C-alpha cells in the first residue's frame, strides 16, 4: 500500500508554516519549532533518533488549529547543540523536556513522541506525572523488534555522502513510502554540508551510548507508573513495533489505548499524515488535551 505518496496535503514540503526559535536549557542551545497560538492547549512533539523537529511538519499545522504546538530538536539532533561526553542518558533527555516546559511557561503539556522521543516521553511521564497531561507514544515500546532495530542501525551507520542526491537516494530506498520531494525536504534539515562539499547527518554519533540502549527493558517499569491518559500509535507496516509489543503495552498500562495506522511504517506521522491525525485527534478530544 502506497497511499502516503498521494495523501500528504498537510504541511508538505516547505509549507509547514512553522516559526523557528532557540533557547538555552541545561547548558545547551536548543532549537525548536512553533505553530499555533499561545493560550491554546499545549502540545509538545518529540522526534525520533537521527531526526529533527521538522519530522512533524506534515501534521503539526493541523494540530495547531486548536493547540499551541512546539516541536523540539532534542539534544544532539538537528540544530540543537551536542552534549558533552556521556550527556545522552535517558534522564538527560527527560531533564530537557522539563526545562523546556519551564522555559515556555507551560505548567504541563500533552506529549506526542516518536521512537527515541517516545521512550523519553514514557520516562518523563513516569518521573514527572504533574507535567504530562497526556501521552501519545508513536511506534515504540521498550521491547524493540531486533530485525527492525538492526535495519535502522545499518541505515544510519552511513552518515557521510559525496552529494545531497546520494543521501536522498539512500533514504528513499530505505523508506519508499515517501516521495522524493518529501525526503529532500526532511534531509535539508537533517544534513549539513562541510567545507569539502560532502554532506553528513547533523545528529551526534555518540547518541545511543550512556545507557540509552541498556535501560530499555527497565522502561517497562516506567510504563506501569504512567498515570495520564495514554495512546500507543503503531504503523501497520512497522518493523520496530510488533503487534505483540503493542499488546504488552496495553496489558502493562491498563486503560491505555492503541491505534494502528494503515500504509505507515515506523515514522507514522510522515508516512500517512491523514491516518495519523485520524488516530490521534479523537484521543486528544476525548481527554480534553
Task: Describe the global form.
Answer: globular
Q: Write out the strand line-up for the largest beta sheet, numbering strands in chain order.
A: 1-2-4-3-5-6-10-11
Order of helices and strands: EEEHEHEHEHEHHEEHEHEHH
Structural class: alpha/beta
* Radius of gyration over all CA atoms, rounded: 17 Å
Poorly predicted runs of 5 or more residues: 1-15
Largest sheet: 8 strands, mixed
Mean pLDDT: 92
Strand segment tally: 11
Strand content: 15-25%
Number of separate helices: 10
Distance between the termini: 32 Å
Please give the share of residues in helix. 25-40%
What is this structure, in a nutshell?
Helix content is 35%, strand content 20%.
Describe the protein in words:
This protein is an alpha/beta fold and 289 residues long. The chain has 10 helices and 11 strands. The chain has helices at 60-63, 90-104, 116-127, 146-157, 164-174, 180-190, 219-225, 243-252, 268-271, 273-286, and strands spanning 19-25, 28-35, 42-46, 68-72, 109-114, 132-138, 160-161, 191-193, 199-201, 230-235, 257-261. It has an 8-stranded mixed sheet with strand order 1-2-4-3-5-6-10-11, with helices on both faces. A 3-stranded antiparallel sheet has the order 7-9-8. It is globular. Mean pLDDT is 92; it is low at 1-15.
Amino acid at each position: 500500500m502506497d497511499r502516503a505518496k498521494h495523501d500528504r496535503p498537510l504541511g508538505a514540503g516547505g509549507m509547514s508554516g512553522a516559526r523557528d526559535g532557540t533557547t538555552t536549557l541545561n547548558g545547551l542551545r536548543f532549537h525548536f519549532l512553533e505553530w499555533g497560538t499561545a493560550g491554546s492547549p499545549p502540545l509538545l512533539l518529540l522526534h525520533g533518533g537521527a531526526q529533527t523537529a521538522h519530522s512533524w511538519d506534515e501534521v503539526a499545522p493541523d494540530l495547531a488549529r486548536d493547540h499551541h504546538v512546539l516541536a523540539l530538536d532534542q539534544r544532539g539532533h538537528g540544530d540543537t547543540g551536542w552534549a558533552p561526553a556521556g550527556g545522552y542518558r535517558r534522564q538527560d533527555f527527560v531533564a530537557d523536556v522539563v526545562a523546556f516546559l519551564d522555559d515556555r511557561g507551560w505548567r504541563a503539556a500533552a506529549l506526542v513522541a516518536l521512537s527515541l522521543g517516545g521512550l523519553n516521553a514514557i520516562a518523563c511521564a513516569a518521573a514527572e506525572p504533574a507535567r504530562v497531561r497526556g501521552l501519545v507514544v508513536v511506534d515504540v515500546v521498550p521491547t524493540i523488534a531486533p530485525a527492525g532495530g538492526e535495519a535502522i542501525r545499518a541505515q544510519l551507520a552511513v552518515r557521510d555522502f559525496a552529494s545531497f542526491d546520494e543521501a536522498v537516494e539512500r533514504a528513499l530506498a530505505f523508506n519508499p513510502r515517501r516521495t522524493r520531494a518529501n525526503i529532500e525536504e526532511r534531509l535539508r534539515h537533517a544534513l549539513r554540508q562541510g567545507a569539502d562539499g560532502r554532506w553528513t547527518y547533523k545528529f551526534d554519533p555518540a547518541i545511543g551510548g550512556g545507557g540509552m540502549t541498556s535501560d530499555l527493558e527497565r522502561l517497562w517499569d516506567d510504563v506501569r507508573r504512567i498515570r495520564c491518559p495514554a495512546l500507543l500509535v503503531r504503523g501497520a507496516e512497522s518493523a520496530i513495533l510488533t503487534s505483540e509489543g503493542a499488546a504488552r503495552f496495553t496489558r502493562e498500562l491498563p486503560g491505555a489505548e492503541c491505534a494502528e495506522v494503515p500504509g505507515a511504517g515506523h515514522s507514522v506521522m510522515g508516512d500517512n499524515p491523514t491516518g495519523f491525525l485520524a488516530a490521534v485527534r479523537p484521543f486528544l478530544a476525548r481527554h480534553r488535551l
